[in-house]
Amino acid sequence: MDHLIASFSSVGDSVNNTSYLQVIVVREAGSTRFVDSFNKRAARVISNLLSLPLVATSVVIVFSLFSPKGLGSILTPLKAILLGIPTIAVAPIVMVLYFFRKGYVDLHVSQGERRPIFFIPALAAYVSAAVVFLWLQCKILYLLSVSYLSISLIVLLVTLFWKISIHMAGLTGPITALTLALGANYALLYLLALPLGWARTELEAHTVPQVVSGAAVGVGVTALVYLGLI
């Protein structure tokens, strides 16, 4: 009888241990899903906040208000902002917004094979912006337009065979422009590339080499433009 009771007790302990282990596994799985979900949400927020149009808008405002060389003899800071944001920040992504509304692409055009066609209106917008600001004798925004145009051309060529990070190029390029035009203090903004790079890889939108290459194109092309034209 004692042996039978011991057997039942042993079975009960095994069941309890199994149940305990199952609870631990379920909890750990739930915790992992929560962390993954939080990371994805954070990555999406960072990607949106440091997207090309928002970065371009910020840079246009800073240049319009704090340009050491002025805005020429025609534009006031307010006029430069009201003209710069539509031409440099908004016009290049109008086609993306249109097809996003149609459900053809997401806001970041994540499908690499669909990206090249969207560069055409963007390039046209940057050319138009460069011509307008050259005519208005606003060198600071003319150079910014030429930088965006040059970066877009290089990124387009690379995109034809490899999915380089537009986000990174669209961040490091303007930061390089700010640093070269307004001073070395703006180089601290390069730190923003760290969370952005993490976000693009966390979302599996890019690999680390694609992120690094995008950053390098933004810095290198912008530096060539500003050092060659200033």
Question: What would you say this structure looks like, in words?
Answer:
The chain is mainly alpha-helical and 230 residues long. It folds into two domains: 1-38; 50-229, no CATH class. The chain has helices spanning 2-49, 52-66, 77-90, 94-101, 115-135, 139-159, 166-182, 193-202, 208-229. The chain is globular. The N and C termini lie far apart (98 Å).
Sequence-ordered SSE layout with sheet pairings:
Elements: H1 2-49, H2 52-66, H3 77-90, H4 94-101, H5 115-135, H6 139-159, H7 166-182, H8 193-202, H9 208-229
Count of distinct structural domains:
2
Oligomer: single chain
Low-confidence stretches: none
In percent, how helical is the residue content? over 70%
The class by helix and strand makeup works out as mainly alpha
The helix/strand order is HHHHHHHHH
Proportion of β residues?
under 5%
Number of strands: 0
List keywords for this structure.
2 domains, globular, single chain, 230 residues, mainly alpha
Give a nutshell description of this structure.
By secondary structure, this protein is an all-alpha fold.
